[in-house]
Amino acid sequence: MTSSPRLLANWIRHSAPLSTTFDHEHLGQYLDNLQRVLDDLPGILKSRQVAQPVVAHAEPSTPETRPDRPIPISTLSIQELGPEFVKRQIENHSWDPNTADQAGATFNLFARLMREERGITRFVDLRQADLEHFNAHLLSIHKYYGKSSRERNCSIAELRAVAATKTDAERGLSIGTRTRHFGFLSGLFEMAKETEDLDPRLRPAAFTGKKKVRARDQRSIPKPDAMAKFFESPVFVGCRSEDEFDEPGPLVFHRAAYFGPMLAHYQGMRREEFCGPAVNDIVLDNGEHPYIHVRFNEFRRLQNNQSVRNLALHPELVRLGFLAYLDCLRNLGISRVFPDLHNPLTRAALGDRLYKELQPIRERLGITPHQFRHFFNNELKQNRVPRNFGKI
């Protein structure tokens, strides 16, 4: 047959003769045609049961494609993911601005080192040997790396050139600082694992450790006569000029170098606590006695939440004009107690600048304002002040 009818009944109906008179010749044709239809029937039924599938055209799989694993959605490089992680930690209130700044500096240094000396920009290409290279770099740069924001734009070669001019004692970050760097990297790697296949053998913790001796135990408690000599320095009793404050003269300048050590001595405050208070942190109208409200502010952070406290202002500070000094700052619209410590060109701690100004006195007498807190606490202990009063 040239064409197959849809149904056998339809074929018979369309093939029937026009005459209704019984005709043996037509009967023979019917039987022949019927036999051919029956012979073709299995093929017709098979074609009707097996429908043509709808096939979606797809690209053939390549050896790199692993359908059983999600395809990484992140295309961020090491340099780019660092700021994203910092942003996440700030939004989660996990980091304060100072911690976020330290972490950002770590990520920037690590990304530059990997790119410039290892040729690596992606997390998937990192190996443990690359972390060893980073640790070796931390041991070779100068001890005060990170104090200046300008160093963030220096190439690794430039940083190595600066380190080459230093002595062995001036090179290499402390174990505490290196531990902080690798701690930040551990967090960054955890974020990268959300979208990238990192080498499971990466172990930043292999380069961390603890100080054998706490910094507070490394500093001795100054003797009373050493404390007296410190406050007999020209900056307190009369200096030649604002710049020559360690030379005897008739002038006294109310500034951080003058009041800062006094706050450490009379109030027992930590370095950043007395270097970074706001003018409004000294409360004058809440009770009979003025006090210092030690709190987190926009100029510096505190060690922890337990560091928030109120300290009654020592009468000697009042006598020496501290409140009059604050009035001058208010009249000038200045919100920092020690604006002379603020340098917009650097992110170094405020206490670093004060220590640099006091360097001649420190070197001459061998003590620092940080030791004043130990002297203060020891004096309380020797005078048997109860711990609930002396714990400031």
UniProtKB/TrEMBL annotation:
One of its GO terms (molecular function) is DNA binding. Signal peptide: none annotated. InterPro entries: DNA_brk_join_enz, Integrase-like_cat_sf. Keywords: DNA recombination. The keyword Cytoplasm does not apply. GO terms for biological process: DNA integration; DNA recombination. The keyword RNA-binding does not apply. It comes from the Bacteria. This is Core-binding (CB) domain-containing protein. The lineage of its organism: Bacteria, Pseudomonadati, Pseudomonadota, Alphaproteobacteria, Hyphomicrobiales.
